[in-house]
Each structure stands twice: as structure tokens, then as C-alpha cells.
């Protein structure tokens, strides 16, 4: 397997371009999945308070034979704690649950527009970084207006915006806005609930390369310039998801996959989702 590339942040730090997401991984399986992934070479584990498996995330990290400094650990603030003081407590609580002194990346999980508190939440993450609790700070599911507001009111842009991206929801405009601010785009739900597995452009690449549809799609994310997090509880799928660094999709094939975009979400709309 080729080395996993890094994406550089504007704060001078960097993030692996590929990692494991533990959304919807059951508590009873999380520690095993995390341990196996780390031992396979996954450098990044993406968690969140809302996933309710942070304790098991920490257990998996401790049971794996890998130095902490070789891992990149992410968590996220949920909507039950979006004001300044609550966000500071949320960071404390995530650190305690995972059993770490520092997180590599802390994100605001959603803008939660009804609360209208994401600017205060952003200020709290800036303070948590200044206090050494987190190395880098970013957001999830922010659109242009959300990004503009926090940048205008604090003078600080996120280093990363984690958004839903897959062949059926390519989010070209949000990706463009991120790039304009030197914000790394990281894709969640990258396989889009398998909706494009049987699409002709995906099958064509799979047949040419001998790869599976999920491997083709994960590779597509990387070649678009996005970081990507993949999820599975099955050992063979975890291993297969790592086998995406030994082939390339041609430009003609990338152009064909681009035509699959239907602007169809599998998750909520950030403009209306309030938790």
C-alpha cells in the first residue's frame, strides 16, 4: 500500500487525507473497529460527541499498538452545547470520555441555524485551541453564509469543512467556497448509501482497474482534492477501503463521474437541520 497523503492546514498543521469514521458504529463494536483500523494503518479516526461512542473510541486507541503522536483524532460539538461556556464544557467532556489530553481537530458538527449560536461556538473553539486542548479547529456542514459570518466576526477561518459529498451529491459550489478560503474539504457519507455503485461510469472504472465500486468512489474523492472518511464494521471492508492508493482514475473517467451529480442528499440540509 502506498503512503497516505496529507492535506496541509492554514495553521501549519496537516491532516491525513483518508481515515475512519465511527458514525453509527455500535458501542459494542467501536473499540474493535478502531483497534483493527489503526493496526491496518488507518492514521485518522473521526468521532463526535453525538455518536455516543467516544469512550469506546478511547479504548480502541489504547488497545492498538500505535504511538498517540502517529494518530489524528477528531471530535465534534453537538447542538446540546452551542453557547460559549457549553462548548468549552463539551471539549472537556470529549477529552475525558476519549481519555486524551489533546484532540488533533475539533469541529462544530452543524450550524444549527435555529439556535443562532455558531459564532459563539466558534469563539469557544478558538479559546480551546489557545489553551492547548485542541490543535486545530474547523466546522461541518457549513455553507458560504455560515463561513462568511464566522470569518467576518472573528477574523478566523476554519481549517476544514466536513460536508456530505458523494457522486450523487458533489457540492461543487461549497467545495469552491472552501478552496477560496484555503479550507480543506473533507467528505462524509462518501459512498452515498451505495446509490451510485451500479452507475455506468463507476462500473467502467471498476472493470478497467479490477477494483470495487466503493474503492473507485473513495479514490474519486481523493482525486477531486478532498480528504475522505470511510466507515465499516467489517474487517475485510476496512482493509479493502485502504486499497485505493495503487491506481488512478483518468480525467475522462472523472468527467464521466461528474455527470452523476443529482444534488441529492442522504443526510439533513444544513439550512434547516437543528438536531
UniProtKB/TrEMBL annotation:
- Catalytic activity line of the entry: hydroxyacetone + NADP(+) = methylglyoxal + NADPH + H(+)
Q: Where is this site: Lowers pKa of active site Tyr?
A: 76
Species of origin: Loktanella atrilutea
What GO terms are given for molecular function? oxidoreductase activity, acting on the CH-OH group of donors, NAD or NADP as acceptor
Q: Which UniProt keywords apply?
A: NADP, Oxidoreductase
Boundaries of each NADP-dependent oxidoreductase domain copy? Answer: 19-261
InterPro entries recorded: AKR, NAD(P)_OxRdtase_dom_sf, NADP_OxRdtase_dom
SUPFAM superfamilies (UniProt xref):
NAD(P)-linked oxidoreductase
| Record: active site | 51 (proton donor)
The name of this protein is 2,5-diketo-D-gluconate reductase A
Residues given in the record as substrate binding sites: 109
Which PANTHER family is this protein grouped with?
A: 2,5-DIKETO-D-GLUCONIC ACID REDUCTASE, NADP-DEPENDENT OXIDOREDUCTASE DOMAIN-CONTAINING PROTEIN
Report the family membership.
Belongs to the aldo/keto reductase family.
Amino acid at each position: 500500500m502506498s503512503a497516505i497523503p496529507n492535506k496541509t492546514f492554514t495553521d501549519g498543521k496537516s491532516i491525513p487525507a483518508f481515515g475512519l469514521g465511527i458514525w453509527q458504529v455500535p458501542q459494542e463494536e467501536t473499540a474493535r473497529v478502531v483497534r483493527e483500523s489503526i493496526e491496518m494503518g488507518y492514521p485518522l479516526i473521526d468521532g463526535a460527541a453525538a455518536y455516543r461512542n467516544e469512550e469506546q473510541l478511547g479504548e480502541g486507541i489504547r488497545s492498538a499498538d500505535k504511538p498517540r503522536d502517529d494518530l489524528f483524532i477528531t471530535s465534534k460539538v453537538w447542538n446540546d452545547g452551542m453557547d460559549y461556556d457549553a462548548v468549552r464544557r463539551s471539549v472537556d467532556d470529549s477529552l475525558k470520555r476519549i481519555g486524551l489530553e489533546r484532540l488533533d481537530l475539533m469541529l462544530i458538527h452543524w450550524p444549527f441555524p435555529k439556535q443562532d449560536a455558531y459564532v459563539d461556538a466558534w469563539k469557544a473553539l478558538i479559546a480551546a485551541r489557545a489553551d492547548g486542548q485542541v490543535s486545530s479547529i474547523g466546522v461541518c456542514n457549513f455553507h458560504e453564509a455560515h463561513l462568511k459570518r464566522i470569518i467576518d466576526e472573528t477574523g478566523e477561518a476554519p481549517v476544514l469543512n466536513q460536508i456530505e459529498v458523494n457522486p450523487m451529491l458533489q457540492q461543487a459550489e461549497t467545495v469552491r467556497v472552501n478552496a477560496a478560503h484555503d479550507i480543506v474539504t473533507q467528505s462524509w457519507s462518501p459512498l452515498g448509501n451505495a446509490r451510485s455503485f451500479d452507475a455506468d461510469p463507476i462500473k467502467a472504472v471498476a472493470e478497467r482497474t479490477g477494483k470495487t465500486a466503493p474503492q473507485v468512489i473513495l479514490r474519486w474523492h481523493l482525486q477531486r482534492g478532498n480528504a475522505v472518511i470511510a466507515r465499516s464494521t467489517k474487517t475485510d471492508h476496512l482493509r479493502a477501503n485502504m486499497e485505493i492508493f495503487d491506481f488512478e482514475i483518468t480525467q475522462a473517467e472523472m468527467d464521466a463521474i461528474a455527470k452523476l451529480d443529482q444534488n441529492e442528499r442522504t443526510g439533513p440540509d444544513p439550512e434547516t437541520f437543528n438536531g
